[in-house]
Specification:
Helix content: 40-55%
CATH topology of the largest domain: Nucleotidyltransferase, domain 5
Radius of gyration: 23 Å
Number of domains: 3
Shape: globular
Strand content: 15-25%
CATH superfamily of the largest domain: ATPase, nucleotide binding domain
CATH architecture of the largest domain: 2-Layer Sandwich
Largest sheet: 6 strands, mixed
Number of helices: 12
Oligomer: single chain
CATH class of the largest domain: Alpha Beta
Order of helices and strands: EHEHHEEEEEHEEEEEHEEEHHHHEHHEH
Number of strands: 17
Structural class: alpha+beta
Strand order of the largest sheet: 1-15-14-13-16-17
Length: 412
């Protein structure tokens, strides 16, 4: 599912008094989220609003408690202090959860976008059920809130992400490597948080969103049209972020389970020949040890086991080298199809599998070159970013606070 996040709200909102009012409120909140603190003049320049409009908007936002005034001493200590506006950090909070194959990563961010608490807990991969997962998450939420001495009413949004297939409208995890087709109904978590909205996202969609926002901040919009995020690890994920109609449109196609080859390699989804069946950690393990390709894949392969295979490959072990090259080849072939269907975009490679990128790169390049599109247009620029967790949480906070801002803008 694709979601458009307006970058310049004036390009995305139809005329109308109430719509214009909400647009102006959201625009000021967005500017303050990006810059931290801004003066009246700065807000006028960033949003393109008249001075009188900025005055009216900031007064409305102060009235509901979303922003506050701060005084900055004049240069040299003389003259009147400079008045700055900032988001009131205690106005609302966001709970963010990254559901990975073996752990649950929790974070709590304030309305200013600052992560004020984080911790992780291991998942029960043996006897865990959707019900026990929800119980564990409810307990962790209570711990987060208690540690920061907050009330349940101060939580404005709960944002969850997972590899697999999600139904964001229903707040549901439809399919995952651990639970298979046993769905997880996250909406049950909202009972204790009456003021919170629920957001459920594919994990790599958040990575693509955060990577795109970072790229846009580093260059002018004219130099950025989009990017692809490829996540390597136990699962294989892909996100596509593109500028469209004045907004950032982000999607997460089911890349890892896209059929790639007519072979007998069994995937965790039950199909044979998926990209992940070769390029996921369990696929690399299976090839390196020459395990029959139709062997039922493990739900989770410890990173230490893949590290051992990588050491062997770097020391010249041919089957270990072959396993990584085949994984890279499957990834490159899949990416070549994505580029052929879209356009040549830079690729950001993330995830725990980036530590083996030197072993995957040759196969990826070969797979990409097999595409006529790549041969004619040249290979994409590839950047390796090892700290995927930061991108995931940045995506959580940015997307969720944008939604909370829209709720604030609707207040009278």
């Amino acid at each position: 599912m694709a979601t458009a996040v307006p970058l310049n709200p004036s390009q995305a909102v139809k005329p109308g008094t109430e719509q214009l009012r909400r647009h102006n409120l959201a625009a000021v909140l967005g500017a303050l989220r990006e810059a931290g603190r801004l003066s009246h003049t700065d807000l006028s320049e960033r949003t393109g609003m008249a001075s009188a409009t900025v005055t009216a908007v900031t007064a409305d936002l102060e009235r509901v408690g979303a922003i506050e005034r701060l005084e900055q001493a004049a240069s040299g200590g003389r003259g009147r202090p400079r008045v700055l506006f900032a988001r009131r950090r205690t106005f609302s909070h966001v709970v963010a959860v990254q559901i990975s194959s073996d752990q649950l990563h929790y974070g709590l961010a304030d309305y200013g976008g600052t992560m004020i608490d984080r911790f992780s807990r291991p998942r029960d991969l043996v006897s865990g059920t959707p019900g026990s997962l929800l119980t564990e998450m409810a307990e962790a939420f209570a711990r987060l809130i208690d540690r920061s001495k907050l009330s349940p009413g101060s939580i404005g949004a709960i944002s969850l992400s997972s590899k697999g297939i999600v139904d964001p409208d229903a707040g549901r995890l439809v399919w995952s490597p651990v639970f298979g087709e046993r769905t997880v109904e996250f909406s049950s978590l909202l009972g204790a948080y009456p003021g919170a909205d629920l957001f459920v996202s594919n994990e790599t969609l958040l990575v693509a969103h955060a990577a795109a926002r970072k790229a846009m901040a580093q260059r002018s919009q004219g130099d950025f049209s989009g990017l692809i995020a490829l996540s390597l690890g136990h699962s294989i994920g892909l996100g596509i972020a593109r500028l469209s109609g004045g907004g950032l449109t982000v999607s997460a196609p089911n890349f890892g389970h896209m059929l790639n080859a007519v072979d007998d390699r069994l995937c965790r989804c039950g199909s044979r020949g998926c990209i992940e069946a070769t390029a996921g950690f369990y696929g690399i393990l299976r090839l390196a040890f020459q395990v029959p390709p139709n062997t039922i894949p493990a739900k989770f392969v410890p990173l230490a086991e893949i590290e051992k295979i990588a050491v062997s490959a770097r020391q010249g072990a041919r089957m270990a080298q072959y396993a990584f090259r085949q994984a890279g080849l499957a990834l490159g072939q899949g990416l070549s199809r994505v580029l052929s269907l879209n356009e040549t975009m830079p690729i950001t490679v993330t995830g725990p599998g980036t530590r083996f990128y030197d072993l995957l790169a040759g196969g990826m390049e070969e797979g990409l070159r097999q595409s006529l599109h790549v041969r004619l247009n040249g290979p994409p620029k590839i950047e390796v970013v090892s700290n995927e967790a930061e991108l995931v949480f940045d995506g959580h906070v940015d997307r969720t606070l944008s939604a909370v801002d829209l709720k604030v803008a609707a207040l009278r």
